[in-house]
């Protein structure tokens, strides 16, 4: 088998805050006398289901106290993406999880993040674009302010508007915000169908007109919806390690990636919150390979699907596809020898 770290990969579903290094979180907590998230242990995280995960995530967000913290978070994320073989990423950042704590500063944190991402690209060669996140549980005021953030930086590091949260809140009331974002040239990449069922995916398609859907795995429960996703060629950002960690499925083998792929739905592999779930994208590809006995050709196909579903520039997409082809064309190391890097 070829070395998965050297496979050129695109990450389409990663939350910036959920990528924070444990040592960075501990250092910030020690500096400020703050408490670490309750599920964070010395060797990893544990969650008691989806809502407990969200509670931990919000506790994690509370640790970031200065604009320098956000810049550091972005730089370190770029370094870690490069280490896992990611050359391009579109990641989620949630201004509404920070502004109230930072004296209603809606723009300082994202400006620090964008500055850190620019430094990370210079130092590590990874290009990262942002998708500000409307946290639907935070209400309409926060949603409108998040839209303002996305619009201010549209074309200046921001490529899309996201919508996440518990999936308990309907998406209808955010529809006009996504229309406004689309008028400004931003794409629509909301979460749907992770913890809620197929109806959540249908409502998201109707009201938010997505260009991609975060997760979407529960769509498999409705054959007509799967056929609709295939007909639309609407990509799904599937995060199998995450789905198991938060209790959506008991085992990676239960995640319906192959069923959706074989039905004609474009599917991609992603890490979601790599620090919290214990796996960056190389580990996610390795877990998928082991769970479904995927060949290198299968994995290269998933990598190409992510390139195609991204909003990267045409020349970057072309270079990524060429890199994937070169990886697949490289000889495999003989048995007992290390994989070719």
Structure report:
This protein has 341 residues and is α/β, with parallel strands linked by helices. It is 46% helix and 11% strand. It contains 14 helices and nine strands. The chain has helices at residues 22-32, 50-61, 67-83, 108-124, 140-152, 175-183, 198-208, 223-232, 240-245, 257-262, 274-277, 281-292, 296-309, 314-329; strands at residues 9-11, 86-93, 127-135, 160-164, 187-188, 191-192, 213-215, 236-238, 267-269. Helix 8 links the parallel strand 7 and strand 8 (236-238). Helix 3 runs parallel beside helix 4 (108-124) and helix 13 packs antiparallel against helix 14. The longest helix is centred in the first third of the chain and has 17 residues, at 67-83. The chain starts with 8 loop residues before the first strand and ends in a 12-residue tail after the last helix. The mean pLDDT is 95.
Q: Strand order within the widest sheet?
A: 1-2-3-4-5
Average pLDDT score: 95
One letter per element, helices H and strands E, the order comes to EHHHEHEHEHEEHEHEHHEHHHH
> How many strand segments?
9
Using the alpha-carbon principal axes, give the shape: globular
Q: What is the helix content?
A: 40-55%
Classification by helices and strands: alpha/beta
- What is the radius of gyration computed over CA atoms, rounded to a whole number of angstroms? 19 Å
Q: How is this fold's topology laid out?
A:
Blueprint: E1 9-11, H1 22-32, H2 50-61, H3 67-83, E2 86-93, H4 108-124, E3 127-135, H5 140-152, E4 160-164, H6 175-183, E5 187-188, E6 191-192, H7 198-208, E7 213-215, H8 223-232, E8 236-238, H9 240-245, H10 257-262, E9 267-269, H11 274-277, H12 281-292, H13 296-309, H14 314-329
């Amino acid at each position: 088998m070829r070395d998965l770290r050297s496979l050129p990969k695109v990450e389409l579903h990663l939350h910036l805050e959920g990528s924070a290094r444990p040592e960075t979180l501990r250092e910030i907590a020690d500096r400020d006398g703050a408490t670490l998230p309750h599920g964070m242990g010395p060797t990893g995280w544990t969650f008691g289901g989806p809502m407990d995960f969200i509670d931990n995530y919000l506790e994690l967000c509370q640790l970031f106290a200065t604009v320098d913290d956000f810049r550091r978070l972005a730089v370190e994320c770029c370094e870690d993406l490069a280490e896992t073989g990611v050359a391009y990423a579109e990641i989620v950042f949630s201004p509404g999880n920070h502004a109230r704590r930072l004296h209603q500063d809606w723009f300082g944190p994202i400006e620090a993040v964008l500055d850190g991402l620019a430094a990370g690209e210079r130092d590590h060669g990874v290009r990262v674009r942002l998708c500000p996140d409307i946290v639907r549980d935070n209400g309409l005021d926060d949603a409108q302010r998040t839209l303002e953030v996305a619009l201010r930086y549209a074309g200046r590091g921001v490529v899309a508007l996201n919508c996440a949260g518990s999936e308990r809140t309907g998406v209808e009331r955010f529809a006009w915000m996504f229309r406004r974002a689309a008028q400004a040239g931003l794409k629509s990449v909301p979460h749907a169908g992770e913890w809620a069922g197929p109806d959540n995916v249908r409502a998201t398609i109707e009201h938010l007109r997505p260009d991609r859907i975060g997760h979407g795995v529960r769509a498999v429960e409705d054959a007509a919806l799967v056929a609709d996703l295939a007909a639309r060629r609407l990509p799904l950002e599937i995060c199998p390690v995450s789905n198991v960690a938060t209790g959506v499925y008991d085992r990676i083998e239960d995640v319906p990636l192959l069923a959706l792929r074989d039905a004609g739905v474009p599917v991609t592999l992603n890490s979601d919150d790599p620090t919290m779930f214990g796996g960056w994208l190389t580990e996610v590809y390795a877990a998928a390979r082991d769970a479904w006995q995927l060949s290198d050709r299968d994995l290269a196909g998933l990598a190409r699907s992510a390139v195609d579903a991204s909003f990267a520039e045409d020349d970057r997409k072309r270079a990524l596809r060429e890199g994937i082809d070169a990886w697949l064309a490289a000889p495999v190391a003989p048995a007992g020898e290390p994989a070719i890097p």
